[in-house]
TrEMBL record:
<keyword id="KW-0238">DNA-binding</keyword>
<dbReference type="InterPro" id="IPR000944">
    <property type="entry name" value="Tscrpt_reg_Rrf2"/>
</dbReference>
<dbReference type="GO" id="GO:0003677">
    <property type="term" value="F:DNA binding"/>
</dbReference>
<dbReference type="Pfam" id="PF02082">
    <property type="entry name" value="Rrf2"/>
</dbReference>
<dbReference type="GO" id="GO:0003700">
    <property type="term" value="F:DNA-binding transcription factor activity"/>
</dbReference>
<protein>
    <recommendedName>
        <fullName>Rrf2 family transcriptional regulator</fullName>
    </recommendedName>
</protein>
<dbReference type="InterPro" id="IPR036390">
    <property type="entry name" value="WH_DNA-bd_sf"/>
</dbReference>
<dbReference type="InterPro" id="IPR036388">
    <property type="entry name" value="WH-like_DNA-bd_sf"/>
</dbReference>
<dbReference type="GO" id="GO:0005829">
    <property type="term" value="C:cytosol"/>
</dbReference>
Length: 151
């Protein structure tokens, strides 16, 4: 599984908005604070706006803000808004795949992978990440010494 730059930037921008409680935040400020190319960020924010995650306001006091409370927006919501489905195989969702012979057991493997990715990303809200208080099950997975090592 690979997290795209687009998804990473989108989550980081959403976290900036989650931390900003007193009004909109300009795209330029987000781009500068998170070292994200401004034009790329504008496209990401537009996708997030179309996805109902952020609202935009024009004018001198304009900018972007979350469209819902941060506790009601999961990391999965943000990734889906900019990248589509969380897990696919060759651009197809696992339930739409069919395998035969020795590859037949790949289907449940891909479905289990999808279920675990969804469990983690849907189980963590922007508020969780912004506050630094991840759910216990995520912390336990991240603390495993083998989590970042390659066999």
């Amino acid at each position: 599984m690979r997290i795209s730059a687009r998804a990473d930037y989108a989550v980081r921008a959403a976290l900036m908005l989650a931390a900003k409680q007193d009004g909109p935040l300009k795209a330029e400020a987000i781009a500068e604070a998170q070292d994200i190319p401004h034009k790329f960020l504008e496209g990401i924010l537009n996708d997030m706006r179309r996805g109902g995650l952020v609202a935009s306001q024009r004018g001198v006091r304009g900018g972007y803000r979350l469209a819902r409370p941060a506790r009601d927006i999961s990391v999965a919501d943000v990734v889906r808004a900019v990248d589509g489905p969380l897990v696919s195989v060759r651009g197809v969702r696992p339930p739409e795949l069919a395998y035969s012979g020795p590859a037949e057991s790949l289907l449940p493997l891909w479905i289990a992978l999808r279920a675990n990715v969804r469990r983690i990303l849907e189980g963590v809200s922007l508020a969780d990440v912004a506050s630094g208080h991840l759910p216990d099950f995520v912390g336990a997975l991240a603390e495993d010494p083998a989590a970042w090592s390659n066999p």
